[in-house]
Amino acid sequence: LGEIEQELLRLENKARSAAVIILNEQLIAFVVTELSESIIREELRRRLPSYMIPDRLIRLDRPMPCLPSGKIDRQSLIALLPTNHIEKSKTIITTTDLASCSTNEINININPLDIILSAFQKTFSYAHPTANDDFFLDLGGHSLTAALTITELRKSFPSIAVYDLYKYKTAAKLAEYLIQLPNDKKEQQTNNDAITFIKPSFTRIILCSTIQIIVLIILSGIASMEYILPYIIFTLILSEHSIICACFGAYGICVIVPLFRYAFAIIVKWIIIGRYKEGDFPLWGSMYIRWWIVEQLRNIAVQQTLADSPLMNNYFRLLGAKIGRNVHLSSIHCAALDLLEIDDETTISSDVHFQTAFVDDYTLKFRRIYIQKNVYIGSRSVISGQTRMEDYAELNDLSFLPPNTCIPSGEVWHGSPATYSHQATSKPSFIETTNN
């Protein structure tokens, strides 16, 4: 709080005194200044992170109340708050009333704008939100208040997401978006509630756990070979040969063991699974156990040591992936490589996740991902199954490509979920150089 107060006092030397308090999980700043609230907020955004921007700014036209000791009297500041602003207008429907209404009653009898303004009013109790107030710039919202507001709005609009508030930042735009939602999306929540899932039986869980325990014991032995075998070989060779020979023998084992892990993971994958195919399989069933075993063997092989090397491409090809020419793969994650296809001249940055296999609704699901030529995928992005990126498409860093999505040729997408950003400026050209 002291840092915020110092920044308020630095406002072009026009703030004579300032104080910040926390009330009802909100930052409230009192400042004696002639500057307008918009100028104050603009200056604070340049100097402070978003979570330190006060939710409410109150300009005082009187000296800051002080205690006999000379310190600011913060209790008196609370008494200066406009308590009449806290009470909701009778024309705005309260959230309690909204919760008691059915979804159909809300959609028919209540204006979505009133519902949104009511939620805004509950989040910012000392403000007077209007239809055109920006949730972040005008009301001082941040990630926490956005989450709280969306939680409140979901009582009336189950399908609304936090992302919607970041995209439609005013109550008017958000209401317009909610009104134009297709009926199938509005009814999606109701339809999902009607779906019943077959939970795995207790016997299947016990059987799967027993097999996993046995496999983990075997895998622990395989993982320890890298540390135990060099000592054993060193001791055996040293008993009959020189220490130099013993050192070379131990070093050879250190080289051979990782290669053995790669080969063992490839062989076991083709023996117990063969080639992955798209489909749904019961959780903790036969396919799940086999898939899990292969993934544990791949983890022991530490495939990330091959990242940013052509060796990674060859290793993935041996595991079933279709990798084109001149493809650059960094440290990527893909649990069913047979369902991943990457065409020529594509670049995949670090820590990219291809969700060709995932668990959902007590089901292990396998889905295909197709990446065409000259595609770029940024670091720490997530590509869902049943997706496609066409030639020269780009997905920026920290983005999430949801299922059943296709990025058209030459388009740049970003965000979570990813949406269209702009058209790629130009297609890359490669210049061959020759030595003079």
UniProtKB/TrEMBL annotation:
Transmembrane segments: 205-225, 231-260
GO biological process: amino acid activation for nonribosomal peptide biosynthetic process; secondary metabolite biosynthetic process
GO cellular component, one term: cytoplasm
Entry keyword annotation includes Transmembrane: yes
Classification via PROSITE patterns: PHOSPHOPANTETHEINE
Keyword annotations from UniProtKB, A to Z: Membrane, Phosphopantetheine, Phosphoprotein, Transmembrane, Transmembrane helix
Ranges for domain Carrier: 118-178
Pfam families membership: PP-binding
A GO molecular function held by the record: phosphopantetheine binding
Domain of life: Eukaryota
Annotated protein name in UniProt: Carrier domain-containing protein
Source organism: Adineta steineri
Organism ancestry: Eukaryota, Metazoa, Spiralia, Gnathifera, Rotifera
